[in-house]
Amino acid sequence: MGGDSIVSHDEDYSLEEDFPLLSSQSSAVLRDNLGLQDEDNRVNGENGIVSGQTSEENTPASSRFDFEVNERNRLGVYQQILQSYDELEVHSKNLKEEKEKILSYIPGAWTEKVHDYDVPKTTCLILVGPRGSGKSSLINRISKVLEDDKFAPARAQDESLFIYLRHSQWIYLFIPDNSLIGDGTYFLKEYMIPRDSTSICLYDTRSLSDNSHDNEDNRIMMKGWMTKGVRHGKLVVRKRDDQRLRKSLKCKTHKKGFFPSKIRKVNFVIYVVNGLSVLKAMENTDALERQYTETIVSTFNCPYLSFKDDKPVLVFTHGDLLSLSNRARVRAYFGELLGIPPTKQIFDIPDCDDPVTATTIMKMLRYSLEHADRNFPQRNVIKDKVRKAFRSLCMILLILVLGVAIALAHNEFIHPCHGPQKQACSTKVHAKRPKLKVHEMHPKIAWHKIRHIW
């Protein structure tokens, strides 16, 4: 991983010889980063998180070859990450085209044999992550980029604020999880992207707890979202929430006046983490810092968040507060930690208004929507046939009923008296008709008056 010390047997060894495509800027960054760790770095065997490597002197002779291969692989990954930043500069020139592809998206547009799948009207992407990861900030940034309005008011409530001090000292000012300042943490929020569209919606969720005692609560929350669906305005309560918090949240539910909305099935997951917190955990070994990465690993690998073999896409935020070398280190670290390709499935989205950040957002959305389309549930052929047969039968019965009703109405119009009232109706008619005498019915003919006829 980037940040580990590299052991070389050749004094004339140079990075440019092994990696000629590495730019001068990336090479300088790489050299600086490779010198950040010393021989005291080691592998944390307790949780499997790599914080460094031992020096070659302490490495058994039988494993030196494997050690060098692993180091070269890490170096290659780090080089690819640095090159990806250079490629973003090139792709940002086609930002308008990338944006048009997202804006013209409809569910199922990027999948083959779409008729074989149960395609929803709206593709639902859910954002999941620990406290202070920047989920709300990411939604605001996505909305501004797609709507092309940098001065639009924030749609989602931002939960965190970070202030940088000199000498790499950081002060974290964030709204704690048990406060009642905003509802963004406790109530599911739906955001159509863009506002007037019905093709894409993002869901902001309650933050995952980074307390090891709340792992079961995190799992129950994620299971509910992924199996039962998500609904705008739904209150999310954990088992470990105290009674005061529960009572206050219930009062806020009535005050907000949320009306029941449509339940949406989650189609893909965007996992959001704070790159600043991760870097701090990488450079510290105390239990509190390590707990943050342990929460990420356990929740990211939760089977409920995956669609078959597709794990969530990972977005790390607050990269604008880090140097380029540290941003590359964080991506390489996550790639090895979570077993996902860092240049394809991990996206560095800082809090910046520039074409490179906008291009990264478009690429992240494109990846998420393509994988959502790929994992739509397949249609049940037998169930569809039974449904079609039932509909056909209902149509036939409806036609028969209408035919009988029309026939009876026609018969009633021609013969108004029928059934039990037929005799009474006939008697009434005959009673009104005057009886004719016999001579009126057959009058006599005066033959002598018409004799001249013949």
TrEMBL record:
InterPro entries tied to this protein: P-loop_NTPase (IPR027417)
Residues passing through the membrane, by range: 389-409
UniProt KW Isomerase keyword: no
Keywords: Membrane, Transmembrane, Transmembrane helix
Comp. bias intervals (Polar residues): 50-61
Region named Disordered: 34-61
Keyword presence, DNA repair: no
PANTHER family: INTERFERON-INDUCED PROTEIN 44 (PTHR14241), VWFA DOMAIN-CONTAINING PROTEIN-RELATED (PTHR14241:SF32)
Protein name as it appears in the record: Uncharacterized protein
The species this protein was found in: Crotalaria pallida (Smooth rattlebox)
Lineage start: Eukaryota, Viridiplantae, Streptophyta, Embryophyta, Tracheophyta
